[in-house]
TrEMBL record:
One Pfam entry name: Trans_reg_C
OmpR/PhoB-type domain span: 135-235
Highest taxon in the source lineage: Bacteria
Protein name: Stage 0 sporulation protein A homolog
Signal sequence region: none
Amino acid sequence: MDTVYDAKFLIVDDNAELLALLCEQLRGAGYGHIRTAQSCAAARACFAAEQPELMILDINLPDGDGFSLFRALRAKADVPALFLSARDADADRLFGLGLGADDYLTKPFLMQELLLRVQHILQRAYRAELSRTKPAPLQLGERCVDLNDAIVTLPEGKTLALTATELALLRKLAENRGHIVTYDALCAAVWGADYYGYEHSLGVHIRHLREKLEAEPGAPQFLRTVRGIGYKLTKGEEA
């Protein structure tokens, strides 16, 4: 993966509503590759079909427990994991961490805390890989974008931070620089295949992105609209 937002997730929890909420929050934060399972058996099948780069595991499952599942999956590959549990016992937390899990979060929890812990685990676990695949800076006139650190540097030296969604959009546009990227392709890059319902917010994120990338956001030089089709990141010389 090129950034933490490219990471593949496997989320295992028997609570369908919580699974849906976790998927929504993670996709909204820019993570697009998410598989879910509601049992140990389904989790093993998902793991076999595509090895994840982060597991989020509930402790209490209908056909087993998260601790045993974690041991079985980690025997196949050294994948980072975050345990979720309704049990607040120190013994459970210490047992999970003792097995080699990267973190442990007790339900109920704040989604923002979960997102921060996920980001820290991914950055820590894949720091070497991310540094090897660090993308080259993106030059947009006098503004320079570091796609690895999600920072826009202005001509006077001031910096602006990109949100996870803005970064995912810009990466997709940069990968196809000079070519049109459709609305559907951009939505899928940010929110995954099940992006329905997010289309209406795409324009809002594009507007915020222009405010950071363009000297004149109302008359964009680089991030152009192709009416009825999508957007295109130009090299600046196009009329």
